[in-house]
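User: Run a structure prediction on this.
Assistant: Running it now.
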Amino acid sequence: EDIKNMTSEDVMNMIGIKLGAVRMKCGLLCLNTVKKGIQNMEDKK
């Protein structure tokens, strides 16, 4: 549940540096991937 409620801002705070638009996509890739994986697993149940 914690990951499902995590926001882009949370990830940016964990990274700890300001990212440009292109690097922001890279920085958020992990969050988006994990959220999609969780959604896929829930859909299969």
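The chain is about 70% helix and 0% strand.
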